[in-house]
Amino acid sequence: MGTENGTATAGTRGGGRRFGAWCAGLLFAGVSVVVGCRVADTDGITPVPQLLAFLPWLLVPTGAGLLLTLLARWWPGAVWGVALLGLLAWFIEPYGKTVEPSGPPVAELRVLTSNVEFGQGTDALIDAVRRERPDLLFVQECERTCDAALRHALGAGYPHRRAVEGDGSEGSVILSRFPLAPAPGVPGTMGMPGAVADVRGHAVRLQLAHPMPPLPDQVGLWREELGRLRDAAAEDGGSPTVLAGDFNASQDHAAFRRILDTGLHDAARLSGADRTVSWPARTAPAFGAQIDHVLVSRDFAARGARFLSLAGTDHRALVVDLTLHAGR
Known about the structure:
The protein is α+β, with helices and mostly antiparallel strands. It has helices at residues 2-39, 48-52, 59-72, 75-92, 122-132, 144-154, 219-234, 254-260, 267-270; strands at residues 105-115, 136-140, 160-164, 172-176, 180-183, 194-199, 202-209, 241-246, 265-266, 292-296, 300-308, 317-325. It has a 6-stranded mixed β-sheet. A 6-stranded mixed β-sheet has the order 5-6-7-8-10-9. Helix 1 (2-39) runs antiparallel to helix 3, helix 1 (2-39) packs parallel to helix 4 and helix 5 runs parallel beside helix 6. The mean pLDDT is 94.
């Protein structure tokens, strides 16, 4: 009888270990697909682009899988899990290099970007603008009611504007304390206006970003519109540039890194806030992704970046303080 009970116990233990190893393998396989695309510098196909936005959080299933491999005494799986943890830790580091401007400072300016979610966060944005007093304001999903409210409430302080009017998510606007000259925007499903600001005698190119999100059936369009932003950034002609808005992409997306590769830098990264969550606001800062960015040419130094929670919108606003330097 004792021998039979011992055999049964050993069989149960062996079955539990096999099940644990099987579960760990499933977790590792899913994470490996996403990490493999990151290694290959591609965004892949659905669901990889959606999961890449949350790359740091893949540490959770990887850690769980590693624990299961230890309990199951599946040593090849443990090596697999440790390798995945190492790759994730590597890619969580900020992308690209930082370069300090070489010329003397000539102007300081504050930039605020906010997606107001179909205009629902307009009132909270107006309060934030009055409190933060930015010099440049980039607003996405500013439909016609939002546009009218901004004109009424902020028109005196921001007399210069460039906008793409539209309903729902299509409307966008740039507001400025500095004079604006017209400039071509970037064509897209949602409005992405452009302008050239006269910042104390220095021409600064402004471009609002709001490409389509990587919905399962629209990944190709998302990639294409980010590509258009990349092309616009590459054609700046060496002038000081601010490219800001809701990119619907993080530094873990290859299509977004292509924009950074043109020579632009993420102001939040320059300020040490490169992994601060901007979306979704309801779970920030504990969980989410940073998809709202202010990208600047190397003519700028960033002195600080803050993310603001605004009522009515699923995005946190981003405020950055910049210093423009002369020459390169």
